[in-house]
Design goal:
The complex is a heterodimer. Chain A is an all-alpha fold. Chain A has helices spanning 6-31, 36-48, 51-76, 84-101, 107-136, 140-163, 185-189, 205-222, 224-234, 236-241, 246-263, 265-273, 284-294, 299-322, 329-343, 345-363. Chain A has a domain at 61-308: ABC transporter involved in vitamin B12 uptake, BtuC (Orthogonal Bundle). In chain B, 69% of the residues lie in helices and 2% in strands. Chain B is globular and about 70 Å long. The chains are: A mainly alpha, B mainly alpha.
C-alpha cells in the first residue's frame, strides 16, 4: 500500500521544496539589504514581461533542458553525472569544428551534423569516467568533476594555440559562416504573424531540446534499453540476476548523458555566440543537476524545471544589472533547490506521509 | 636544476600539501564513520572566505580562524542533518553544500566589501606568519645582515638550506596539520572512540546492538570533519594566500578525496598521498613551460596535471581500494 497518493509525490513534494528554497532565498536577499518583493517583481518583468525577456528565458531554458536531461538519464542508472559542464564544453568544440571546417549549403543540414558532432564530443568526454566506473570502480562523481577541470584546460589550449585566428587577441574561434546561422524565434515566428523580439537569443534549438525530451521519455519508458537502465538503477543485484550487464548499462547511460550535455552547444555556441569562446557554458552543466532533481528525473518535469531555471537565470541577470545583488544569487538558489529536493527530501516527505496516513485512518 | 631549486620546490610542496592533508584527514574521519562527504570543497571555501573576512575586519587572524571553523561546522551540521537525521542522499547533500558555499561566499563578499566577490588583501597581522625555528636563517637574520633572505640561504650549506628553507619558516597551521597525522592515527586506532567510529562505518547495526549511539558517533565524525575543513580553509586564505578570492579552493576538496582513496583510508598513507599531490601542484606552479628537447609542454597541461593524476590514481592503477563497508548508506534502526 502506498503511503500517499501519487499526485502528492509528484507535485506536492517538489512544490513544498521549492517554496522552502524560495523562502530561504528571500531571507538571503533581505540579509544583504535588498527588498525580496521588489526583487521578485523585477525578475518577473525582466524575464517574462516582454518577448525580449522571454527570448532570454527560453534560451537559458534550452541549455538547461539538455543538461537536465543529461543528468536525469544518468540518474535512472543511479549514476551521478556532475560532468555536464565539461561535456558541454567539449560539445562546443565539436560544434565549432563542424561549423568552421565544412562549408554547409544550408543551416538545416549543418544543424543535424553540428548536433551529431556535439553529441559525439560530449559522449566521448563522458566515456572515460564511465569506463573507469564500470571497469575499475573509480567513483564517477570525482572523476567527472576532474574531467570538468581538464575540459577547461583542453578548451583553453585549443582556443589559444589552435583555433584562434591569426592576429586575434581574445581566445575564441573565428565567426561561423553566414550559412550556418540558426533562425531565431523572431525569424521562426514572423511567417505566422507573431512579433518576437529580434535581439533575443532563443532559437530553433529550443525545438530540438523539446524533441530530445520526448526522445528521452521514449527511451526510458518505452524501450527495452530504458527498462534495463531503470532496472539497474533500482537494484544492481536484481539487474544482474535478470542478465543485464552492469558494464553495458553504465557505459550506454553515461554516453547518452554525455551526448545530451554536449548537444547543449548547438544552442549556446551555434545559436547564440556563433563562435566558440572560453566559458561559453556559464555553469549550465551544474544547473542541470538542480533541474533533474526538481523535475524528478522525468522529461516533462525536467521541461518545467528548465523553464523555471531559465526564468531564474534571466531574472537573476536583471537583478545583477539593476541592483547590488550579484549573479551568484542564482548559484545559491540552485544549491537550495538541490538541497531541498535532493538531500532533504525526507524532511518534507516524512511529515506529509504521516499526514496522509492520519487522513486515511479517519476515513476508515 | 641545482639543489636549492629542488629544496624550494619541496618547500612549496609542503605548503601546498597542507590544505590537502587537512581536508583529507577531515574526509578520513567522516568516511570511516560511514558518511561520504563530497562537500569538503564547499566547507573549505566557506571557511576560507569567513576567516579572511573576519581577519580583514578585526585584524586578528585567530578570530578569523575561529570564525572560519565555525562556518565550516555549520555546513558540516547541515550535511549531518541531511544525511544522518533525514537519511538523504549523501552525494547530493555534498554537491548542494559545494554550490551553497560557492554562491554564498561571493554574495556576502560583494555585500560586505564591494570588491567583486573578494576580500581586501590581508596585512601582516591578518595572516599567519612563518615561524622561525631555532638556528634557522629567517627574515630576522636577513634584516640584521641587511641583505635579502634568498641570498643568505643561497650561501649557506646544504643542511642549513634544507633546515631553513624546507623545515623552518612555515606558519603554525602547517606544523599543526602534520601533527594531526599521528594524532588521527592515535585517535582512530588507539582509543575506544576511534574503535567505535571505525565500527560504525563498517557495521552500524553491531554498534547499535552494543548500546552505542550510531547517530551520535556519526555526528561526532561529521563535526571533526567540519573542524579540520575549517582549518584547511583558513589556511588557504590567511596563510597560503593573503585574502579570499572567488572559488579559491580550485578542486582541492576533490583532490583530497582522491588522495583519501589512494591512501585507502589510512592516516599515514594519506600524508604520503597529499605530499604527492602537493609536489605536483608545486612543480606545475614553478615550471609553467617545460621544454623537453624540441617539444614544449604547454602551460595548460601543467595546470591540468593534478586533475589528470587524480583520475589516474582513481583508476586504481595502484591496487584495489575498498571503502568502509557501510559508507554512503544511512542507518535505519529496526523497530
Amino acid at each position: 500500500m502506498d503511503k500517499m497518493p501519487k499526485w502528492a509525490d509528484v507535485v506536492l513534494i517538489p512544490l513544498i521544496s521549492l517554496v522552502l528554497a524560495a523562502i530561504l532565498s528571500a531571507l538571503v536577499i533581505l540579509a544583504i539589504g535588498e527588498d525580496p518583493v521588489a526583487a521578485v517583481k523585477m525578475m518577473v518583468t525582466g524575464a517574462l514581461g516582454s518577448t525580449y525577456g522571454w527570448g532570454y528565458t527560453l534560451y537559458y531554458a534550452t541549455n538547461f533542458l539538455f543538461t537536465g536531461l543529461a543528468v536525469a538519464v544518468a540518474f535512472h542508472a543511479r549514476m551521478f553525472n556532475i560532468g555536464g559542464e565539461g561535456q558541454a564544453m567539449l560539445g562546443g568544440l565539436g560544434v565549432a569544428l563542424v561549423c568552421l571546417y565544412i562549408p554547409w549549403p544550408h543551416w538545416t543540414i549543418a544543424l543535424v551534423f553540428a548536433a551529431l558532432g556535439a553529441a559525439l564530443f560530449g559522449a566521448a568526454w563522458a566515456a572515460i569516467p564511465a569506463y573507469l566506473q564500470a571497469k575499475r570502480g573509480s567513483h564517477i562523481v570525482i572523476t567527472t568533476i576532474m574531467f570538468n577541470f581538464i575540459a577547461a584546460a583542453v578548451l583553453n589550449y585549443v582556443l589559444v594555440n589552435v583555433l584562434k585566428p591569426a592576429g586575434a587577441m581574445d581566445p575564441a574561434t573565428a565567426r561561423f559562416a553566414e550559412t550556418v546561422h540558426l533562425p531565431s524565434l523572431h525569424e521562426l515566428l514572423a511567417p505566422f504573424g507573431i512579433a518576437f523580439s529580434k535581439s533575443a537569443p532563443a532559437n530553433v534549438s529550443l525545438l530540438v531540446a523539446v524533441a530530445a525530451c520526448f526522445a528521452v521519455w521514449l527511451l526510458i519508458w518505452r524501450t527495452r534499453l530504458g527498462y534495463e537502465i531503470r532496472a539497474y538503477g533500482h537494484s544492481e543485484p536484481g539487474a544482474l540476476y535478470a542478465g543485464i550487464s552492469p558494464v553495458k548499462i553504465i557505459m550506454i547511460s553515461m554516453l547518452i548523458s554525455g551526448g545530451l550535455a554536449g548537444m547543449m552547444a548547438i544552442n549556446n555556441v551555434m545559436g547564440e555566440a556563433e563562435r566558440l569562446v572560453l566559458n561559453s557554458t556559464e555553469g549550465a552543466g551544474f544547473i542541470g543537476i538542480a533541474v533533474a532533481l526538481m523535475g524528478r528525473n522525468h522529461p516533462f518535469g525536467v521541461f518545467l524545471a528548465a523553464i523555471l531555471f531559465g526564468f531564474l537565470y534571466q531574472g537573476g541577470a536583471e537583478l545583477a544589472l539593476w541592483t547590488s545583488i550579484p549573479r551568484e544569487l542564482i548559484v545559491v538558489i540552485q544549491a537550495l533547490v538541490i538541497l531541498f529536493t535532493g538531500a532533504l527530501d525526507n524532511m518534507v516527505r516524512m511529515p506529509l506521509e504521516k499526514l496522509f496516513l492520519a487522513l486515511r485512518k479517519e476515513k476508515v | 636544476m641545482d639543489a636549492l631549486t629542488i629544496i624550494q620546490v619541496l618547500d612549496s610542496t609542503v605548503r601546498l600539501a597542507t590544505p590537502l592533508l587537512l581536508a583529507c584527514l577531515a574526509g578520513l574521519f567522516s568516511e570511516r564513520a560511514g558518511i561520504f562527504d563530497i562537500g569538503l570543497e564547499g566547507k573549505m571555501l566557506m571557511a576560507a572566505f569567513l576567516s579572511a573576512a573576519v581577519a580583514a575586519v578585526t585584524g586578528n587572524v585567530w578570530l578569523g580562524l575561529l570564525s572560519g571553523i565555525a562556518s565550516s561546522l555549520v555546513l558540516a551540521g547541515l550535511h549531518g542533518v541531511a544525511s544522518i537525521t533525514f537519511r538523504g542522499n549523501q552525494l547530493i547533500s555534498g554537491v548542494a553544500i559545494n554550490f551553497l558555499a560557492a554562491g554564498m561566499t561571493v554574495l556576502i563578499a560583494q555585500d560586505w566589501f564591494q570588491q567583486g566577490g573578494r576580500t581586501p588583501s590581508l596585512l601582516a597581522e591578518g595572516r599567519f606568519g612563518g615561524i622561525e625555528l631555532p638556528f634557522a636563517i629567517g627574515p630576522s637574520d636577513a634584516a640584521a645582515a641587511g641583505r635579502p633572505l634568498s641570498e643568505l640561504i643561497g650561501e649557506a650549506g646544504m643542511f642549513q638550506q634544507i633546515y631553513s628553507e624546507l623545515l623552518s619558516g612555515h606558519s603554525i597551521l602547517v606544523y599543526a596539520a602534520f601533527l594531526c597525522v599521528p594524532l588521527t592515527w592515535w585517535v582512530l586506532f588507539r582509543t575506544r572512540f576511534g574503535l567505535r567510529l571505525r565500527a560504525v562505518g563498517e557495521n552500524p547495526a553491531a554498534v547499535d546492538t552494543a548500546g552505542v549511539s550510531v547517530v551520535g558517533l556519526r555526528f561526532a565524525a561529521v563535526a571533526i570533519c567540519g573542524l579540520l575543513c575549517g582549518i584547511a580553509g583558513a589556511y588557504l586564505a590567511t596563510a597560503l594566500q593573503a585574502g579570499f578570492v572567488k572559488d579559491m579552493t580550485a578542486g582541492r576538496g576533490f583532490i583530497a578525496l582522491a588522495a583519501l582513496i589512494f591512501a585507502k583510508w589510512r592516516p599515514w598513507h594519506a600524508m604520503g598521498a597529499c605530499l604527492l599531490f602537493g609536489l605536483l601542484q608545486a612543480v606545475a606552479l614553478r615550471f609553467q613551460n617545460i621544454e623537453l628537447g624540441s617539444i614544449t609542454i604547454p602551460v595548460q597541461v601543467m595546470d591540468a596535471l593534478p586533475y589528470i593524476l587524480t583520475v589516474v590514481i582513481l583508476a586504481g592503477f595502484v591496487g584495489k581500494a575498498i571503502p568502509p563497508r557501510a559508507g554512503g548508506e544511512p542507518y535505519v534502526k529496526e523497530r
